[in-house]
Design goal:
The complex is a heterodimer of chains A (807) and B (101).
Chain A lengths: L7 H8 L3 H17 L1 H34 L4 E6 L2 E6 L8 E5 L7 E13 L1 H4 L5 E2 L18 E2 L4 E13 L5 H7 L9 H30 L4 H15 L4 H18 L2 E3 L4 H7 L2 E4 L11 E7 L8 H7 L4 E2 L3 E2 L2 H12 L9 E10 L4 E8 L2 E8 L1 H7 E6 L2 E4 H17 L3 E10 L13 E10 L6 H10 L3 E5 L4 H10 L7 E3 H5 L3 H10 L2 E3 L3 H13 L4 E4 L6 H6 L2 E5 L4 H6 L2 E3 L4 H42 L7 H15 L20 H29 L6 H23 L13 H16 L4 H6 L6 H28 L3
Helix pairs in contact in A: 1-3, 2-3, 2-7, 3-8, 6-7, 6-21, 7-21, 7-22, 8-21, 9-21, 14-21, 17-18, 21-23, 21-24, 22-24, 22-25, 23-24, 23-27, 24-25, 24-27
Chain B lengths: L3 H32 L10 H7 L1 H19 L2 H21 L6
The chains are: A alpha/beta (807), B mainly alpha (101).
Chain lengths: 807, 101
């Protein structure tokens, strides 16, 4: 098995791949060189904080994955030189003869050479809920699907009945399981959210470079000193960058992860949270997610479809389950006992005494017991309907025996209908026998068909509600299963999931990539598919522009879990699938998933709020600073003041992750749309520029600040800070601020505290240190009125903007 | 009277900002019409333009008012004008909200 190689250095290095860090670090160096260490230290501290937070979270997640990988260890019984040895499966080589028994995990991929009633549970591998019969016979199928390899044991599958011997064909990395694990030893595909952040970083770099170069050239051209011009353009560059964005995103994600844990959703990879909320297609396996993942006896009835009272005791008697506190054995035998216990029918066997048993085997595909009731001996047989029919001479209808041939046609029709509905069926027959010392399979003849047992893996109780909720949330469900299409279709019918199209693995094999991309759009059920095909489906959906979630818990699900934008597994899943997943549900329940998606949408909503507000405000402020630098004889704000305002603004935003998100925002999945961010910045940025210009006018022409740079800078600092921070309450929602959309209490508290701090700052020693001075009382009156007009105007702009720009 | 050179620069800057915002609004409006399917587009007429661009008319009115009041150099006129504009904006906002908002 491949090892999951990662080092602290790699995780640390990954943190610096963020382009925003690159801008910040470059700015810190230039600032340190030209304007002293203070500014450089402030910027580098912000970078360090973000790196430490990101590193801690990612490293912790990587360690969990590493631990999970180390938990996989399988033992094997091998025959070498005529001696049986138990060895670690890692020591097996192709050609070894291995033996497997009930409860064993197949230690390698094995070609079976000898089997005795061998059945394996391949649910985690192929999605098949029912045990699969394994034999040594040759298979005559070209390019068989894994489900058709009945003479093959796959490494990792569990033997649930019988035993066998086989020759090791491949071990470790060369096995099917190994190839699945190998596919995980590659970098995690970039999530939609990461792509969005990367594009956003590129947009910021372009904007920053363009503005900085433009401002520097313009200032230098009109005769400002070169160093001052450089310093100012540098401050504008820093002012444009939302320094704390990585930290706020990480804190937002971490807080979201913590809230999600409360709804039993554990986040392994933080960056997947946003995509979790935004996924519009959820591909899921069937067994255990939509169904209980457990075989139950749905019903039993006689040949004439009546509740024949003898069927239940006969099925309990002709049964191999070991019944103690817990029932152990074949899943169908267990299901019969569970049914009897739930319906108080287990006492019905008390009148009978077991005399002999003719065990199950795969030639007969049935088992029989002989029981004694009073003085009568009865042979009871239970097994595959075709096998039982072959041994029956009569069928019991309405209490009378009549020749089986008279009813066989209608029985076969019923049997076929039930099979089409995805049910598994066993037939029960009996005959009176004489007392003998022992009985053999030869006695299984001239039986009377009594009735049928109908088994199913039922849908989960809340699956219908969960599927509806996901549909309402704009998440389309697609079922990817290794099981057959009839069973999958039946589950969809039960859950009222409309099935647009069913595609089988064999159909997919014939399709080109273009055809697969078209097929995934219109297909609801993919049945009998291989792990590779699951991967292709996920890739095709992603290529079509969907944010794809994949839920699975089997070995066969691991590659798809890894490839999906959001891999969702469950706590009870096999290790390799938990390793591959981004999200682990502590309950295998789609309702839990819906809660998690809702939480993910809130986190995305708050992250986007920060990005939109930060970029547009910074852009507006820096745009006005750049314009002012052209006509003012002094800098409109000192670089240190710009940085301080930025820091204060980011502090005000620190509680944004806790903000309330409007209900309509979480109704449907959202996408990162860099075009929307650009439009938003272009539209809302100039609002703050206009009011900055207005403040310049007030300061210069009402308060005569043209000869008092400190007064001008203070006036602008306070106005700029007020507008930048208070506008959060307007543009955080599309509704009427405060009246129909209440901000989070911590956001209100921290924002207003920051506004208060920014207001009293000019009157403090720190304000003096930063170059601020006291403002005249009339200014405060004008400021309040001007900011109020600004907020109403932005709200009016918001109504216009959202009418024409959808997000 | 304020320093005319500086005032001239300032008036050009604030007017430039308003014109830029108006142009962005027109661009966004035209872009949204382009993305609308045929038949879903609102007809272009004076009534719709006045209604849809109401905030732009308010913005341009504010611009004129701000330039005039700053030129006069009166804090009282500036304050009173702001209050009037706020009332106009509140009426506009109340009338233009949908039920869900």
């Amino acid at each position: 098995m491949p090892t999951h190689a990662f080092s602290m250095a790699q995780v640390l290095f990954r943190q610096f791949k963020n382009p925003i860090f690159a801008i910040l670090i470059a700015c810190a160096f230039v600032a340190g060189f030209f304007s002293g260490l203070n500014q450089a230290i402030v910027i580098l501290s912000m970078v360090a904080l973000s790196v430490v937070l990101g590193f801690y979270n990612e490293y912790k997640a990587e360690k969990i994955v590493e631990n999970l990988r180390q938990n996989v260890s399988i033992k094997a019984i091998v025959t070498r030189n005529g001696k049986s040895l138990q060895i670690d499966s890692k020591l097996l080589v192709p050609g070894d003869l291995v033996s497997v028994y009930v409860g064993d995990i197949a230690p390698a991929d094995v070609r079976i050479v000898k089997s005795k009633d061998l059945q394996t549970d391949e649910a985690t591998f192929t999605g098949e809920s029912f045990p699969v019969e394994k034999v040594s016979d040759k298979i005559d199928v070209e390019q068989p699907m894994p489900q058709q390899l009945t003479n093959y044991l796959f490494m990792g599958t569990v033997v649930v009945h019988g035993g066998g011997q086989g020759v090791v064909i491949s071990t470790g990395r060369q096995t099917e399981l190994g190839s699945i694990s190998r596919s995980l030893a590659r970098p995690h595909p970039e999530t939609e959210f990461q792509k969005g952040i990367r594009k956003y970083g590129t947009m910021l770099i372009t904007l920053t470079l363009a503005l900085s170069i433009g401002i520097f050239s313009l200032n230098a051209a009109i005769g400002h000193p070169l160093i001052d011009s450089l310093l100012f353009s540098l401050a504008v560059a820093v002012g444009l960058v939302p320094e704390l964005m990585p930290a706020i995103v990480t804190v937002s994600l971490a807080q979201g992860a913590s809230r999600m844990a409360k709804v039993k959703v554990v986040v392994k990879r933080l960056v997947s949270i946003e995509d979790f909320g935004n996924m519009d297609v959820l591909c899921t396996d069937k067994t255990g997610t939509l169904t209980e993942g457990k075989i139950v006896l749905k019903d039993y009835f006689s040949v004439d479809e009546e509740k024949e009272p003898r069927i239940m005791p006969y099925s309990l008697l002709c049964n191999n389950a070991v019944v103690e506190e817990k029932i152990v054995g074949n899943p169908m035998d267990i299901a019969v006992w569970d049914y009897a216990r739930e319906n108080g029918a287990q006492a019905s066997v008390k009148a009978y005494a077991k005399v002999d048993e003719i065990p199950f085997d795969y030639q007969r595909r049935m088992m029989s017991v002989v029981v004694k009731k009073d003085e009568e001996f009865i042979l009871i047989s239970k097994g595959a309907p075709e096998s039982i029919f072959a041994k029956c001479k009569y069928a019991e209808t309405e209490g009378r025996k009549e020749p089986l041939s008279a009813v066989l046609e209608s029985i076969n029709a019923k049997f076929s209908d039930l099979s089409q509905l995805g049910y598994r069926i066993l037939a029960v027959a009996y005959k009176d026998v004489k007392a003998e010392k022992s009985y053999t399979a030869e006695d299984e003849k001239d039986l009377t068909l009594l009735g049928f047992l109908i088994f199913t893996d039922p849908p989960k109780k809340d699956a219908h509600q969960a599927v509806n909720r996901l549909r309402e949330m704009g998440v389309e469900i697609k079922i990817l299963t290794g099981d057959n299409e009839l069973v999958a279709k039946k589950i969809c019918d039960d859950l009222k999931v409309s099935v647009k199209r069913v595609v089988c693995g064999s159909d997919l094999m014939q399709m080109s990539w273009t055809e697969i991309k078209a097929a995934v759009e219109e297909t609801t059920i993919f049945a009998r598919i291989t792990p590779e095909q699951k991967l292709d489906i996920i890739k095709a959906l992603k290529a079509n522009g969907h944010v794809v979630g994949f839920g699975g818990d089997g070995v066969n699900d691991a590659p798809a879990l890894y490839e999906a934008d959001v891999g969702i597994s469950v706590d009870t899943a096999v290790d390799v699938s938990k390793e591959a997943a981004d999200i682990v549900l502590l309950e295998k329940d789609l309702l839990v998933l819906a809660d998690g998606i809702n939480e993910g949408r809130k986190i995305f909503g708050n992250t986007i709020k920060y990005i939109l507000m930060g970029t547009s405000s910074n852009f507006g402020n820096m745009f006005s600073a750049a314009a002012a630098s052209i006509f003012l004889p002094f800098l409109p704000m000192l670089p240190m003041q710009i940085l301080f305002m930025n820091l204060l603004y980011d502090v005000a935003n620190m509680t944004l992750p806790t903000d309330n998100v409007d209900e309509e925002y979480t109704k449907l999945p959202k996408r990162w749309d860099i075009g929307f961010v650009r439009k938003y910045t272009l539209f809302f940025g100039p609002f703050s520029s206009l009011y900055d210009f207005l403040t310049y006018g007030i300061m210069l022409f009402i308060f005569g600040a043209s000869a008092n740079p400190a007064l001008f800078q203070t006036g602008w600092f306070v106005e700029s800070f007020w507008t930048e921070v208070l506008v959060i309450f307007v543009i955080r929602t599309r509704r009427i601020p405060f009246l129909t959309s209440r901000p989070g209490k911590w956001l209100i508290l921290l924002t207003l505290s920051c506004v208060a701090f920014g207001t009293i700052l000019p009157f403090t020693a720190l304000g003096g240190f930063l170059g601020f001075t006291a403002l005249p009382p009339e200014y405060w009156v004008l400021l309040v009125l001007m900011v109020a007009t600004y907020l109403f105007l932005v709200d009016a702009g918001k109504v216009f903007f959202y009418k024409i720009c959808k997000f | 009277m304020p320093d005319l050179d500086l005032f001239g620069w300032w008036a050009i800057s604030i007017s430039g900002g308003s014109v830029f915002l108006t142009l962005v609004s027109i661009y966004l409006y035209a872009d949204s019409r382009k993305r609308c399917k045929n038949g879903e587009q609102e007809p272009v007429n004076i009534g719709n333009l006045v209604k849809n661009f109401m905030f732009v008319w308010v913005l341009l009115s504010l611009l004129v008012f701000y330039i005039v009041s700053i030129q006069i150099g009166s804090a009282a006129i500036f304050a009173a004008g702001n209050i009037v504009m706020e009332v106009i904006l509140i009426i506009y906002l109340i009338r233009n909200r949908t039920k869900s908002e």
